[in-house]
Amino acid sequence: MDMSTLYFLRHAESVANSKNLLAGRIDFPLSETGKADAKDLADDFSQRFTIDGLWCSPLLRAQQTAAPFLTACNTPIRFDPRLIEQHLGRFSGLSYDQVEADPAYRTERSARWKWIPEGGGESYEMIAKRVADFFMDLRQCCQSEGLNNVLIVTHAVTLRLIHATLENILPNYPQTIAGNGELWVAPLLPPGQACTIQTVKLGSGPRQHRA
User: Fold this and answer.
1) Which end of the chain has fewer beta carbons closer than 10 Å to its terminal beta carbon, N or C?
2) CA–CA gap between residue 107 and residue 113 (Å, rounded)
3) The domain spanning residue 126 has which CATH number?
4) Domain, as residue range, for 134
5) Stretch 190-199: mean pLDDT, rounded?
């Protein structure tokens, strides 16, 4: 089987994004703008690419983004908890102004590898471990099922660690994040091999929000 191609999509704009809140694992739905964007993303994607596998975070905003792809690409959705967003502990649901005024919140993004948010949160190192586990299982699945093109719908911080994993730069990671509805394309290489990630403009283009 040829090397599988992976497509990574950050969910469309959520209610939390529109209100400048840190969603974490709170199950915010898409905003009305996000719902319209999700359909446009799926329509544009299906006219340009084909997929034979679709994985998605179980959070509602990711599910609502992936749902139009079920019809547009005629591919069932598989949910995997390892694609869920970072657990932000007691900072979940707060505004950026609120958390940045709290001395316990790690505002410096480059220093979050070992930082565990208070209240049962999750460090970037912990996210990277579950992302690595996901890719290990995905490689086996692509091999056994003959999957050549796979779409993965997930979240901003999770994508930050996915990006670092694919480029093999951990424990470093990008300081920027994918916009809502941003699409990346990358080959599924063996563990430890660095690959190049391409960004593809899809639909009306990504919407930028903080993370």
Assistant:
1) N
2) 12
3) 3.40.50.1240
4) 5-200
5) 93
